[in-house]
Amino acid sequence: MLRIRKVADATTAANRAAVEAAQKIMREQFSAMPDEDIAKLPDQLSNPLKHRFVSRLFVAENGRDQTIGVALLLYFSDIGFSYLEVISTAKGRMGAGIGAALYERVREEVRALGTQLYFECLPDDPELSPNPEIRAANVARLKFYERYGARPVVNTKYETPVTPGTSDPPYLVLDPLGSNDLPSAATVQKVARAILERKYGLPADYVQMVVSSITDDPVRLREPRYVKSRRAVKGAVPAPGEPRIALVLNDDHTLHHVQDRGYVEAPVRIRSIMAELAPSGLFERLPTKRFSDRHIRAVHDGRLVDYIRKACLIAGTKKSIYPYVFPVRNPARPPKDETVLAGYYCIDTFTPLNESAFLAARSAVDCALTAAEKVLEGAGLSYALVRPPGHHAETSTFGGFCYFSNSAIAAHMLSRYGKIAILDIDYHHGNGQQEIFYHRSDVLTVSVHGHPSFAYPYFSGFRDETGIGSGAGYNLNIPLPEHITPEQHRSAVGEALRRVRRFAPAYLVVSLGLDTARGDPTGTWSNRARDFEKLGRMIGEQGYPTVVIQEGGYRVRTLGINARNFFAGLAAGHGAARHATPAAQGGVAAKTARPALEWRSAVMPEDVGRVRSLVASTEFFSAAEVDIAGELVTERLTKGIRSGYHFVLAERGSGLVAYACYGPIDGTQDSFDLYWIAVAPEEQGKGLGTQVCLRAEAAMRRAGAKHVYADTSSSDRYAPTRGFYQRMSFTEQARLPDFYAPGDGKVIYVKALDPERPPPRDGP
Ligand SMILES: [Zn+2]
Q1: Distance between Cα 482 and ligand 1 center (Å)
Q2: DSSP per-residue letters across 137-165
Q3: Are the C-beta atoms of 183 and 116 separated by less than 8 Å?
């Protein structure tokens, strides 16, 4: 099994291990690479400003979680190009398609960034590479890339040895990702300059010599040398269109068919959902992978897992075991008889054990894990369409049609790579994941459901169940009355999403119950198709990589239509979030009374995601800049004030509505940089930007700052930003023409801070 995973940071143990393994591969395979360049990798991931590019690390992992390949991509956001710094398999892992899988993943990423891909490759020209052995390896590499349409840029002096007389100076290679449009000379000049200056720190005269040799306009690539047939080129990377949802379907579910009258958890449920989803064009179906039992045993008591397996086999396919006695759960003395044990582990009388139930439940777990793995690989949305459901299965009990907690198993697997939130919008309380993660703070569990006074499971789902120990505060239940409107339901889901935003998870798991629908035999609410579309949109707008796992929903006539509408909304919301507005902070909350502004300077872990959402919502910044904004918060959290990043944050209700980030400029006595200032769109035009700026200035003054610097673009689009600095009494100190792009310069502002001026008073 091979998996390509994008590693955002080194915050979890698994990510740290992956980064270390990547460093080991780099040390072994690139003996010429200076060790300090390799050592700085974790810092490079978390501190892009310092390095003047954003780093994206991809690792290839096998079934035992060993890192067997690595690719490091640098994104120079100010110039708008991507540079493949490293791509390599681990020692002794050559072949096996690892390099190709990594390279193809890198190309997808570059395509999503909207740039072209550059890298260096050692030459295959005998004059430049006289040693036949080295040259043969160079030929193999260039041949590999040529199959993708990537070839050296010719007719330049790029491959001039820095030290005259040395062999094997690299070519500059361009992969245009299947496009026939080659970049202009001016663009490639900037690219070459950035690589030679920022990456290698080469002397100005050498850089100038290379840059001025790039004169073909547009530049030219070498004629194909190894790949003759045009068809052999696997060039084009499809443009990122509407986000497609990776769909994993539990084909084994039909085995599990309880013929008893009134047993609503039936195979027709999935058939009716698929009948609507298949023609929608929203989904891309994936085969189900098989996973080991250890994922199930990581969240469920091994004795429960063993019992379910054994009892199901004893029952066979023709009959079922139903519990008929519910022994007091004395852990030391479980009953011996297998049929009596049913009541020891089960919480109700309608979750029968038989061979097909076990096979279907086991396969549902594989589907949930396959869908979860898809988001680890970088997919935005995935959906495990499974039955039986899972959210009523706890650590050592099952029931409510559920055997294994699919959502909790997926969430636990994902939790190795970042914080997870589970949002359960089934009509019934998600007691399974609540109990499983009740003592953990790295998995937030939130459930919106019918109040347990009238709704299954009756014993849990109350407001005051909020977690215990280190999990205190990481479970939120929002129980609702028996009869509510779809608007009231959405308002509660809005509250749930605000809690999720504060937590700022790396991945979101949605336990999707469609039993909140009008006419559902197990529910009392009245959502219609358009309501499900809105629910999907609200969730998608958060912009998190999201795994949806099917739970309940039993009114077969409308199940499919409601599912289709939910996913149409989810995909639309997620697509919009990628471009700008996640977390429609105004949406639901704005209708209620406006809470007062609250100011603070301390940052919390949840601010990483909230700052990202805020910055993205302004629509002014690229995805890479959004990453940087979040990473500065991470830097502050990990290094404290030594990070050099300080913050002013304004909250209204549970939403972050404005913030500024500033800090001293290294190597200066009393100059500070105002790195970021952003105000949520719905709060703009009300003087909030002024307040944030004044508060940041006051804090800088207290820290001894005499001058504050800020920079922005000279383009028309940034006229409001320049106007803002001018109104704040910043004066233009310098203008660097064509800094960001031709005709798009950088404007540097400065403001002298008067030490006498008193800081502003609190309040708006
Ligand atoms: Zn339900």
Answers
A1: 14
A2: HHHHHHHHHHTTT-EEBPSSSTT--SSTT
A3: yes
Tally: H helices and E strands in the chain: 22, 22
pTM of the model: 0.66
**If DSSP states are collapsed to H, E and C, what string results for 652-684?**
ECCEEEEEEEEEECCCCCCEEEEEEEEECHHHC
C-alpha distances out from residue 350 to 278, 345, 642, Å: 31, 13, 59
Distance 270 CA to ligand 1 centre (A): 15
Q: How far is the CA of 269 from the centre of ligand 1 (A)?
A: 13
Q: 180 falls in which pLDDT band (50, 70, 90)?
A: confident
| CA nearest neighbour of 252 among 354, 356, 353, 352 | 356
Cis peptide before 132 (omega within 30 of 0): no
pLDDT band at 654 (very low <50, low <70, confident <90, very high): low
Lowest mean pLDDT among 167-181, 577-591, 689-703: 577-591
Tell me whether residue 392 is one of the annotated catalytic residues: yes
Burial of 579 (0-12, 13-18, 19+ CB in 10 A): exposed
Rounded Cα–Cα distance for residues 179 and 175 (Å):
9
Q: What does the pLDDT look like over 472-490, one tens digit per residue?
A: 889 999 999 999 999 999 9
Going by pLDDT thresholds of 50, 70 and 90, the confidence category of residue 240 is low
Question: In angstroms, rounded to a whole number, what is the distance separating the alpha carbons of residues 174 and 120?
Answer: 9
Q: Which residues, other chains included, contact 741 with Cβ-Cβ below 8 Å and sequence gap of 6+?
A: 79, 80
Q: What kind and span of H or E run contains 498? A: helix 486-503
Q: How far is ligand 1, taken at its centre, from the CA of residue 426, in Å?
A: 5
pLDDT at 204: 94
DSSP, collapsed to helix, strand or coil, labels residue 1 as: coil
Nearest to 10 by CA among 59, 49, 51, 53: 59
Give pLDDT tens digits for 196-212.
Answer: 998 888 999 999 999 99
Contacts of 697 (CB under 8 A, 6+ apart): 708, 751, 753
To the nearest whole number, what is the mean pLDDT of the chain?
87
Alpha-carbon distance values, 751 to 375, 422, 450, 665, 698 (Å): 45, 46, 57, 14, 13
Span 332-377, pLDDT tens digits: 777 777 777 777 787 777 788 887 888 889 999 999 999 999 999 8
Q: Is the pLDDT of residue 754 over 70?
A: yes
CA of 521 from ligand 1 middle (Å) equals 10
Query: Which residues fall inside 5 Å of ion ligand 1, going by CB?
Result: 426-428, 513, 515, 552
Name all contacts of 670-675 with Cβ < 8 Å and 24+ positions apart.
670/704, 670/705, 670/706, 670/707, 671/705, 671/706, 671/707, 671/708, 671/709, 672/700, 672/703, 672/705, 672/707, 672/708, 672/709, 673/708, 673/709, 673/710, 674/708, 674/709, 674/710, 675/49, 675/632, 675/645
How far, in Å, is the centroid of ligand 1 from the Cα of 110? 41
Q: How far is the CA of 503 from the centre of ligand 1 (A)?
A: 25
Q: Which residue of the set 392, 428, 449, 574 is catalytic?
A: 392
CA atoms within 13 A on the CB side of 601: 13
